[in-house]
């Protein structure tokens, strides 16, 4: 009932966000149901390997949807401050607020999953035909009976992942919107810098050694370690880039660009790290498939890749919109002192270029390592 | 036809009208400000003081009326030209410090000078000096979020004065300050005004602050309630009636 009332107050943007979450969840649910259908279609004494493989293939998409749900749940308090203040005034504490936001995301995911299930059942009953000649029968598992408990468990994964990710992403301090300027700036700790420098170096060392002695498992472990390190390094690199931009005695443009990047390094760092790692992986996977002529890239892999890409971009855009709000607060005093538009635009351009360079460097690093690890 | 303003007035405004979304804030304000003087615009909150300062400083254009700065018209200037005027000739202290959150104190003070094209070395030295004068030199490398409201407001005052502008607009500059530092900051503003020939336009609802001015203009309901005159005892007593908490014995 609460969510119905909340939904009545949705503006176009909220509605779009809700619908996109549902659509993404529907795609993931369809992938999961297809894995189930294929498992049902295989005759009884079947090896578990391929079925498990198909399920594991759904994991990146599931993770992407959960990530998106988290990003959106986190942005909600800033986008609807009046709703948050209203709820707080009504006596909703940080914990319950988290639950409410998580519930909203989980509901969107559940709706998507139900739509996918309805489509799946309609296709199975041949009430709806997409491809003729029963070419989908294998994926739909029309030859076996659908296990009810299994279906529900699989479908419940989507809202569960989405809801848990949303609850984890909402920070109690964000729930009640405060003036952003009162938040002290986070500087990289020594431990974080050590991790950001050490992990990629250590991982690269493992990959290089594994390539020499021809050990694919070690190469995969090395790649994982190095990529984690690179992801951890992105905010540190952004902070460093900002610091070096404002180094010495900068002009107004360079000063604003550098200090702005330093202030945003942590909030911008996470989605940019995800973007660089996902982009690098996508590029390497694409090149690998392009090199092997007998393995054609199926439509499902393309759908999954598109879903992951859209989720990553969606989360990044959400964060950028969040930061744009913080920007406007900083622009008030600048406009008051008559800062020319060219200085403001120049600083934004310089900041974007520096962040782009960091993403490119991190992505290239992750991509090269993945290519090396796959070549073993 | 517009009448050219007297030569010795740094700012001269005639019949200013301004409304916010249909609510009138200024209903025909005329006023002149002489070079180097301290003018207090006094009155209860909501009487249009802040709007008057915004319009005079070119932050927002007036709906009607004329403003002349050093005998050149401001009301005919476009957005870019008004930005340039604010950057090069005006300083502003608000009721909130309004510092740029990502810059440290010294950078905040140096920023208007950098924007006005003053050399970076001069800007850095001057910023350090002004922070020293306002007793916040030890905060130079800290960001606004790490500072007390009192320290932030001192930095904002340093920022407004450091570029040595022709006119400083101060809208309730002592509002975020402790009682004991109000006096000090006001004295610094007045000293700077005297030594650097900076004209100071002070909006306040506090009679004890208005007393620092050479002249007091009392506003009510978007109009000047009394003719502007030299430290008008009547004007001040009217103000004290409006704000009984601020009353002090004369």
What would you note in describing this structure?
- The complex is a heterodimer of chains A (376) and B (250).
- Helices cover 81% and strands 0% of the residues of chain A.
- Chain A is mainly α and 376 residues long.
- In chain A, α2 (12-41) packs across α5, α9 packs antiparallel against α10 and α10 (216-245) runs antiparallel to α13 (341-374).
- Chain A starts with a helix and ends with a helix.
- Chain B is an alpha/beta fold and 250 residues long.
- In chain B, the strands form two sheets. In chain B, strands 3, 6, 7, 8, 9, 10 and 11 form a seven-stranded mixed beta sheet that branches. Chain B has a four-stranded antiparallel beta sheet with strand order 2-1-4-5, covered by helices on one side.
- In chain B, α3 packs across α4.
- Chain B is globular, with a radius of gyration of 18 Å.
- The A-B interface holds A 180-185, 249-252, 255-256, 259-260, 262-263, 329-330, 332-334, 336-341, 343 and B 59, 80, 82-88, 90, 92, 94, 98-103, 107, 111-112, 114-115, 120-121, 124, 143-146, 159.
């Amino acid at each position: 009932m609460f969510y119905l009332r909340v939904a009545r107050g949705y503006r176009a943007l909220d509605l779009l966000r809700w619908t996109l979450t549902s659509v993404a969840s529907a795609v993931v649910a369809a992938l999961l149901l297809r894995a189930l259908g294929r498992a049902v279609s295989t005759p009884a004494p079947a090896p578990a390997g391929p079925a498990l493989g198909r399920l594991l293939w759904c994991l990146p998409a599931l993770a992407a949807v959960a990530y998106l749900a988290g990003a959106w749940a986190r942005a909600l308090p800033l986008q609807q401050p009046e709703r948050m203040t209203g709820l707080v005034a009504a006596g909703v504490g940080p914990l319950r607020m988290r639950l409410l936001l998580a519930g909203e995301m989980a509901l969107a995911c559940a709706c998507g999953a139900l739509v996918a299930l309805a489509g799946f059942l309609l296709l199975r009953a041949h009430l709806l035909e997409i491809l003729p000649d029963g070419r989908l029968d294998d994926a739909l598992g029309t030859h076996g009976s659908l296990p009810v408990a299994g279906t529900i468990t699989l479908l419940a994964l989507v809202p569960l992942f989405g809801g848990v990710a949303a609850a984890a992403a909402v920070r109690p301090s964000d729930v009640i919107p405060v003036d952003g300027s009162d938040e002290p700036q986070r500087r990289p700790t020594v431990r974080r810098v050590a991790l950001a420098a050490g992990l990629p170096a250590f991982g690269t060392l493992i990959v290089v050694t594994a390539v020499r002695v021809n050990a694919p498992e070690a190469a995969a472990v090395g790649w994982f370690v190095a990529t984690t390190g690179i992801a951890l390094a992105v905010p540190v690199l952004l902070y460093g880039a900002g610091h070096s931009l404002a180094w010495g005695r900068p002009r107004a443009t360079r000063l604003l660009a550098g200090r702005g990047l330093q202030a945003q390094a942590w909030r911008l760092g996470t989605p940019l790290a995800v973007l660089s790692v996902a982009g690098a992986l996508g590029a390497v996977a694409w090149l690998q498939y392009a090199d092997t002529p007998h393995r054609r890239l199926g439509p499902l892999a393309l759908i999954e890749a598109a879903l992951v890409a859209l989720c990553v971009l969606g989360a990044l855009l959400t964060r950028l919109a969040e930061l744009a709000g913080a920007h406007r607060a900083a622009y008030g005093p600048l406009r008051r002192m008559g800062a020319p538009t060219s200085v403001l635009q120049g600083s934004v351009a310089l900041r974007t270029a520096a962040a782009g360079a960091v993403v490119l460097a991190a992505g290239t690093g992750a991509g090269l390592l993945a290519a090396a690890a796959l070549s073993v | 036809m517009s009448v050219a303003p007297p030569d010795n007035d740094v700012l001269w405004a005639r019949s200013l009208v301004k409304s916010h979304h249909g609510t009138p804030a200024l209903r025909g304000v005329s006023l002149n400000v002489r070079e180097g003087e301290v003018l207090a615009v006094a009155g209860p909150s909501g009487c249009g003081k802040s709007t008057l300062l915004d319009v005079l400083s070119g932050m927002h254009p007036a709906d009607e009326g004329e403003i002349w700065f050093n005998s050149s018209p401001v009301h005919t200037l476009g957005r870019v030209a008004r930005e340039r005027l604010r950057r090069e000739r005006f300083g502003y202290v608000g009721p909130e410090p309004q510092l740029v959150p990502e810059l440290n104190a010294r950078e905040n003070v140096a920023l208007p000078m950098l924007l006005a094209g003053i050399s970076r070395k001069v800007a850095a030295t001057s910023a350090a000096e002004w922070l020293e004068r306002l007793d916040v030199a030890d905060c130079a490398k800290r960001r606004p979020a790490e500072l007390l409201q009192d320290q932030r407001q001192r930095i904002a005052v340093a920022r407004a004065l450091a570029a040595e502008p022709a006119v400083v607009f101060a809208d309730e500059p002592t509002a975020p300050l402790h009682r004991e530092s109000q006096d000090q900051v006001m004295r610094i503003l007045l000293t700077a005004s005297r030594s650097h020939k900076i004209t100071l336009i002070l909006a306040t609802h506090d009679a004890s602050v208005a007393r620092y001015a050479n002249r007091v203009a009392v506003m009510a309901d978007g109009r000047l309630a009394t003719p502007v005159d030299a430290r008008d005892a009547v004007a001040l007593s009217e103000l004290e009636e409006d704000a009984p908490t601020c009353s002090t014995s004369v």
